[in-house]
Design brief:
Helix content of chain B: 40-55%
Radius of gyration of chain B: 19 Å
Order of helices and strands of chain B: HHEEEHHEHH
Number of strands of chain A: 30
Largest sheet of chain B: 4 strands, antiparallel
Strand order of the largest sheet of chain B: 1-2-3-4
Number of strands of chain B: 4
CATH architecture of chain A: 7 Propeller
Shape of chain B: elongated
Distance between the termini of chain A: 18 Å
Oligomer: heterodimer
Strand content of chain B: 5-15%
Radius of gyration of chain A: 22 Å
Distance between the termini of chain B: 44 Å
Helix content of chain A: under 10%
Number of domains of chain B: 1
Largest interface: A-B, 55 and 47 residues
CATH superfamily of chain A: YVTN repeat-like/Quinoprotein amine dehydrogenase
Structural class of chain B: alpha+beta
Strand content of chain A: over 45%
Structural class of chain A: mainly beta
Largest sheet of chain A: 8 strands, mixed
CATH topology of chain A: Methylamine Dehydrogenase, Chain H
CATH topology of chain B: Yope Regulator, Chain: A
Chain lengths: ~375, ~170
Amino acid sequence: MSAIAVHQFAQCITCHAWSPDHSMIAFCPNNNEVHIHKLVEDKWERIHVLQKHDQIVSGIDWSIRSNRIVTVSHDRNSYVWNKEGADWMPTLVILRLNRAALCVQWSPRENKFAVGSGAKTVCICYYEQDNNWWVSKLIRKRHDSSVTSVAWHPNNILLATTSTDGKCRVFSTFIKGVDTRGSGTSSAGDTKFGEQIVQLDLSFCWAFGVKWSPSGKTLAYVGHNSMIYFVDEVGPAPSAQTVAFRDLPLRDVLFVSERMVIGVGFDCNPMVFAADERGLWSFLRFLGERKISSSGAKYGSQFSEAFGKLYGQSKHGISNDIGEASRSRGGIHENCINCIVPVKKEGQSTNTRFSTSGLDGKVVTWDLENQGDLSEYL
Amino acid sequence: ANTLRLYLTCIRNTLEAAMCLQNFPCQEVERHNKPEVELKTSPELLLNPVLICRNEAEKCLIETSINSLRISLKVKQTDELENILTKKFLRFLSMRAEAFQVLRRKPVQGYDISFLITNYHCEEMQKQKLIDFIVQFMEDIDKEISELKLSVNTRGRLVATEFLKQFI
């Protein structure tokens, strides 16, 4: 079993993020608050509740070096939280959005962060010292539908986005005064803000969960048509591979190393994809055990009346025992997994640990160290 | 009975694929969250509807979107009496849609009863149990209508016998 820790934090978790030393976790329990829990002697205790948003918090990211939390919500707002003493103080972010914000991520150098929104725009925010707030520059008129996911390239300039119009796009987010031209690849240095480097039109259906590999060479994203796309050499002549799998669609992905990707989604079980020596990606296996479900006893409907039987059947407990067995589902998570976050150990280049959270309210930490068949890909 | 099994299995498999819903805020109106399958204002958020027909009289339409799913059923009605019974029975259920949570108050045009399942239902309840409920509902509907028809006929016979006794 590769799951090393399971904890039920709430009834339903929208998204989560770890503190730099992994002692604290921040998550949204499907409402307008952000709860921060700390591991105190093997028990999780709630130490802070960040309450500033009016609607559900759709994205949380915790920066590693500067220890700041950025939250975005469906109420079109975003806040950057700084730890001052014992409390977290919010700093205003001028997002200039007129629809909900859907996702957020700190840039690798943590001087900017990107927000994808339902207004079909992406906001790149940077800090303005004079007024003590974060201002944004918008990438407009490039997306045809809501931007579901954003991912920063390690060079701090390129940003990949996925949208419900099925396309994945890569933009340059060079901001004068915040980013420095000079060393780095020439392609990243010459472009101006908001310029679209490449548009990938591989999916017929909505695209989610885009991520770059640790070196920035490969890009991976998923489509709702149960496919995962891997793109190499992102630039004027990208080469793409599509892997179709027979299970339910994925929601998010994570690069564990250059050659291994973990995908999570509606199957409630992480899926492992790996590239062989020639660079061809394929689906390896599921990470957790798959339970073979058995039909349980009929839930207490003792009514003999016709509609009474329908009234009495609770959707929570009923199970069809006439022979139509439910399909087997992943054992640890009971509902869709919608967020996967790396848990980086200090000073390690490859990541073998990551955590997943889902609509069942559990956060599960996984470790790939003991999985013999996967070690060659790490 | 054999075709019923196949019909229900087909619906079950389609629902397992279709019930992959997620929370999605409205693109048209700020701060709102509406079931996109009812709204239909953003065509990119809707998937192709699937129509599963058992025969001409019985069919099931499944329409999905990014945050909601609509299932409409047309139940078998072989004669006038079944027609009336079905209409009355399903109207009785639809009017109490709040108790069922996933039922729609009015069936979609051309169908007898409709369900509306949103991402909130999938968050609160388990997907497998929801699918089991829908399939069980479809099986039970047929049984209920037959039982009702039987009891109507039985009662009619009893009443007629009693009434005509006075003329013997």
